[in-house]
Amino acid sequence: MATASLRLIPLGGLGEVGKNMMALEYGHDIVVIDCGVLFPEEEMLGVDLVIPDISYLIERQKKVRAILITHGHEDHTGALPYVLPQLKVPVYAPRLAHGLISVKLKEHRLLEEADLRMVTPGDTIELGAFRVEYFRVCHSIPDAMGLIIKTPVGTVVHSGDFKIDHTPVDGNTTDLTRIAQAGAEGVLLLLSDSTYAELPGYTPSEQVVGEALDQAVGEATGRVLVTTFASLISRIQQVIDAAEHHRRKVAVVGRSMEQNVEISRKMDYLRIPRGLLVGVREAKKLPPERVVLVTTGSQGEPTSALVRMANRDHRDLQVMPGDTVILSASPVPGNETVVGRTIDNLLRQGARVLYERVATVHVHGHASQEELKMMLNLARPRFFVPVHGEYRHLSAHASLAYEVGIPDSNIFILEDGDVLELTPTGGKVGESVPAGHIYVDGLSTWGTGNPVLRDRKVLAGDGIVTVIVVRDKATGQLASPPKVVSSGFLEPEETHDLFQRVSSAVEKALTSDGKPRSGGRLTRAKVKETASKLLYKETGRRPMIIPVTIEV
Amino acid sequence: MATASLRLIPLGGLGEVGKNMMALEYGHDIVVIDCGVLFPEEEMLGVDLVIPDISYLIERQKKVRAILITHGHEDHTGALPYVLPQLKVPVYAPRLAHGLISVKLKEHRLLEEADLRMVTPGDTIELGAFRVEYFRVCHSIPDAMGLIIKTPVGTVVHSGDFKIDHTPVDGNTTDLTRIAQAGAEGVLLLLSDSTYAELPGYTPSEQVVGEALDQAVGEATGRVLVTTFASLISRIQQVIDAAEHHRRKVAVVGRSMEQNVEISRKMDYLRIPRGLLVGVREAKKLPPERVVLVTTGSQGEPTSALVRMANRDHRDLQVMPGDTVILSASPVPGNETVVGRTIDNLLRQGARVLYERVATVHVHGHASQEELKMMLNLARPRFFVPVHGEYRHLSAHASLAYEVGIPDSNIFILEDGDVLELTPTGGKVGESVPAGHIYVDGLSTWGTGNPVLRDRKVLAGDGIVTVIVVRDKATGQLASPPKVVSSGFLEPEETHDLFQRVSSAVEKALTSDGKPRSGGRLTRAKVKETASKLLYKETGRRPMIIPVTIEV
Q: For B195, how many CA atoms within 13 A lie in the half-sphere containing its CB?
């Protein structure tokens, strides 16, 4: 299906269009940008992970030249272990992302067979009809990059996840010069991060947080416990710097944080003075005012050290009055309640708690409105597609693009599976291709709209009642009174008499015409109807009712 | 248990201490402040409502002189239909709250027997040892009030839910003079609203929203649809004013909104020019630029008109390109995701959507930090108890009190069931009494920590597998192969072979020593263990497993 147009297809983002995976296609070549995983939303009961639907790519396996990773966050890399076994293509990634992906692939025993390649800013990669160049951006993980992709139709600029920080922790600023050069040479299409397109102004620099952390550590009279995202390496650096400044030792608590600190240190993304890091046991022996603990749990994860401490069920660590706890992160949407509860429980135990609402202990990693306009004005694209965000964020970003002068007809808000076809002079959204989300639950994967999830919703609401009817194969008579068992419905003491009444009612219904009804399906329908009516009348609830017939 | 001290006891607030119900006790007298309901949190699977535990009051029924309602919001009045049948005492309420409660009690067929009395600001009520006076405050519902309660130990001031608005819609400002007088005469204890104690500065006046709404309606070229809380009568007044100003008709959509508009209009809380209100049918015949629709759905409630329109499944109303939709409310914590999704779906259909993050179309009804300090400085209490808020809000409010000069030892952060004992010179938190939450689910009520909810959580996660073993009573032999059924576990086509293997494994396990095991409990344990191991190995999941044995 070679065409003379360039095709852009977001393949999966859970409303967050293009965040997790996009395809860029021209003639016989496809490059894939990012390969991320999503964490399930509240109503995806029991689902472990959400990955993009790659059936479009699998059908065009031979055309796929590479997967281009922009940075090391899970929502841009986490689906690789699920995708690579089905799509054997080279993966390009910045150095830190390369390191993190290697660890992950090793855990999945996929590292040997994977073709993982490291890129640095300025590298140029020829991939069929595409020439790809990576450029540096600032984000909440080191080594984040954007892409300049030369195509036969024109140049595509992809911002990656970015903000414009003139004083980042590692000194590596967003490469505005390279974007400006591309803009001056002519950009066909800009894809830009929309996560904070609703927010006016500029996102503050990491420097602000560094100063606030230093002050908080300096003021603390007891232990300091800092919690943040394990991938926010620059924040960990700031904590280490503050600890050093105030002559405290640092102990890292929790597996994912330890792992990331170790990798980052090995790869020189963290500068840790000799002797500063200590183990948790050693930290416990030091005077409280000489200790900083760094850990995860900023999202209220129930198994994290922070939440365990908040709930007084951590094996080694207890909150002590005089502790200062700093939540150097903001709750991801959906986590507000659990994070709030964690703060409450820390306060109850006498800790001082600093969090985003009451202190400047966090800034996020995405551009606000003025930075987004800056990106638009430097890249000066003919066409614009807002990416990375819910529909309202894309919509707000589209308005900004219109404000800086891009005509409405050249702005496209895409949804997963939409195919944008671009020529040097025009664009249109044509066909739709399969895209969206695949749920990973245990060892199974499912499409959306799965009946299992609908069932779980009913189970979660009113529980389940199973009614078992055993009949004699030969006579068709009931071999015993119908047995009723339940779960998640009522307390056992509430069910005893009630279930006896259900059993009698079912027995009566099945034998009302003098002989037991035959036909499994009919019997089950009758059992269900009888039990359901009686239970609703007596309890006001509608549990799931499962009739089972057994012949003996 | 008469004592010479005054006892203050928060009885239920779901972390939000004192929001929903508090008791004030002296000698042989108790007055109860508010009687609210809570909407269940996410993890309270299937729970309909949460009400306070009133066992402390029921045991002291004869001492309870009255329930004092501060305003008409559900979280201050909604438990009355559950509490009044158990606690037959007079209920005092401001005029609008009186009207709303009457409707609610009538629905529950409780109005006849209830002793409901109306109060106006300045009214003084003698209740045993207490003399209660209501005073006017501003809040997000008309006729909100605070309380000045004279007790033998000293004067208690309760702020109610309040903010300080110098230009409220109905012209009734918070009665700072009365609070100042009380302060000048001497206040023993101040109880004050902590909901927004984390927020610096002042809460903006409703006037700001009035102007923004007027501008939005003026600029709109098509229909305008405004959604807000049904109880936010002043906001509805602002919408009506804006509609009148721009010569549009107003149609009210949805039962709760219609009901509140009707009551408020009858009671003169809404001024609606003759001919301005039209029915939905009539509104549909008018040109779009002549119409304002007012409806609920600002919290993303799935059955609301707004959400139905957003999802394209409303019977009568469709979103049209050119519509302006105004969400004049902020999402209650926990509702952010569903509200966001509703905005997305409205935008997808071409509506312009104004919401809090992008326009000043809402301000909330609670005091921010400077207003809270004002309240503290006017009341000048000896003792302070922050109420209405999660622990972190109470804690932030306590810090403000300390900043304005109340000594730490005179500030008490209470939790439900804590008993604060006050004398004119000192206070201490002594014993704890039963308090907390009762869950209403269908026709049952439960305490917290209920096993049914734990079961529902497991069911929601991985579903349920029931394994049924039928044995011959006489011989103990299996009467048929074990039967395995499931729900919320795997798709039917995934289970067929798997469940046959489970059945065989269970059969083998039960007959492994040549004869079937006896003893129901042992059998069930064996069945559970066998099924559970096999299922985890083959699916990576841990469903709830219910073994059932039947003898025939």
A: 18
